[in-house]
Write a structure and sequence with these properties.
Catalyzes the NAD(+)-dependent oxidation of L-threonine to 2-amino-3-ketobutyrate, mediating L-threonine catabolism. The protein has about 325 residues and is an alpha/beta fold. The chain contains twelve helices and 13 strands. The protein folds into two domains: about 10-125 and about 140-175 and about 240-245, NAD(P)-binding Rossmann-like Domain (Rossmann fold, 3-Layer(aba) Sandwich), CATH 3.40.50; about 180-215 and about 250-320, UDP-galactose 4-epimerase, domain 1 (Alpha-Beta Complex), CATH 3.90.25. Strands 1, 2, 3, 4, 5, 6, 7 and 11 form an eight-stranded parallel sheet that branches. Strands 8-10-12 form a three-stranded mixed sheet. A two-stranded parallel sheet has the order 9-13. Helix 6 links the parallel strand 6 and strand 7. The structure holds 1,4-dihydronicotinamide adenine dinucleotide and 2-amino-3-ketobutyric acid.
């Protein structure tokens, strides 16, 4: 799909130094030119990020500075990734409310004021124990029991409201737990599904904070990035919703461990459930129904569990070899 033909696209990715932002910026830069995609965050960027394109310090709570950034750089798209995830959010509810809700209001106001297109991700965490869990459809009861989930439902509804009232081009995907190698996850309930690969190739032992039968929707990061870009580029007329579920696979800790053992038979997994994260996981969907995304804008994942495991093990092996670390 062609997006904004003949227009200089300038995009800012806020909260861009987390697990997802760096990779998304890379893909957008390949398509639109590195100078046209600005990464922003409140953390110090590693040198490999600084070498690849513009980075600016921007606190999502500082509206005036954000406005300056948008105006001075003639920004047309805003990707809002700044957030506190589910587990860290429960550990600091006041901060999560500020970043996830006040921060969201800032970017929505900015988008309205400056006619920006805006993408904000939601999550499987936007559902709760009273939602249908297998599968969770796009439209159903949403009563999450975390501040993270509450802030994401608020985001979905605010974006949709502003779209219908003022024509804001708000787009939102509900991501499953995202699995990646290069940047560690930021404190969520699905983080074990990244750590287990690193442990498998380092110590050969993973202690899992979820029970072995806890099934959750998951996705390889490259599918997540591709879905995001394809959805951002989809023509308005194809979208029947502003917020879509996207799915790729669902697995339990035991199932991913079994798949890893096909490559590394010595992997040992012990289970020591953490009550906060287990309670959160038990309230989330076990599977996502993404039929609307498939129908409306052609979403299709490339990675299933087998492909995910092979790719993760290969990528971590390569990374450990480059870093001079031993491989178990
Ligand atoms: N990683 C995952 O599995 C999933 C992520 N998502 C969503 O995707 C988005 C990105 O997630 P991740 O990259 O995984 O999160 P992350 O926790 O790795 O990164 C979030 C970033 O926000 C930044 N941030 C925190 N406070 C800020 C502030 N005041 N101003 C500006 N930036 C600030 C942090 O420094 C961090 O780099 C989030 O909205 C998250 O809810 C949704 C579902 C799954
Ligand atoms: C699924 C998510 O939104 C995130 N990874 C979390 O576990 O909080």
């Amino acid at each position: 799909a062609v997006f904004l033909t003949n227009v200089c696209v300038s995009c800012v990715c806020a909260g861009g130094l987390g697990q997802l932002g760096i990779g998304l910026a890379q893909i957008l830069r390949e398509q639109y030119g590195s100078e046209n995609v600005i990464l922003s965050d409140i953390k110090k960027p590693p040198s490999h990020v600084l070498n690849r394109g513009p980075f600016v310090y921007a606190d999502i709570l500082d509206y005036k500075h954000l406005r300056e950034l948008v105006v001075n750089n003639r920004i047309t798209w805003l990707v809002h990734y700044s957030a506190l995830l589910s587990a860290v959010g429960e550990a600091n509810v006041a901060l999560a409310r500020k970043i996830n809700i006040t921060g969201l209001h800032n970017v929505l106001d900015l988008a309205l004021e400056n006619s920006l297109r805006i993408f904000v991700p939601s999550t499987i965490g936007a559902f709760g124990p009273s939602s249908p869990r297998d599968p969770a459809p796009d439209l159903c009861v949403q009563r999450p029991r975390t501040i993270y989930g509450v802030s994401k439902v608020h985001c979905e509804l605010m974006g949709e409201y502003l779209h219908y009232k003022y024509g804001l081009d708000f787009r939102c995907l509900r991501y499953p737990g995202v699995i990646s190698v290069n940047t560690p996850p930021g404190g969520g309930t699905t983080d074990y599904a990244v750590q287990i690969f690193h442990d498998a190739l380092s110590t050969g032992h993973h202690e899992c904070y979820l029970r072995k039968e806890t099934r959750l929707p998951m996705m390889h990061i490259s599918d997540c990035h591709r879905a995001t870009v394809e959805f951002m580029q989809a023509p308005q007329c194809q979208l029947s919703l502003r917020t879509y579920n996207i799915a790729a696979m669902s697995f339990t800790p035991e199932e991913v461990a079994q798949e890893i053992r096909k490559h590394l038979p010595h992997l040992k997994v012990t289970y020591n459930p953490d009550s906060v994260r287990q309670t959160i996981a038990d309230s989330w969907p076990v599977r996502f129904d993404d039929s609307n995304a498939r129908r409306d804008w052609g979403w299709e994942p490339a990675f299933g569990l087998q492909e995910l495991v092979s790719d993760m093990l290969q990528s971590i092996r390569n990374k450990r070899a480059t870093d001079g670390l031993s491989i178990s």
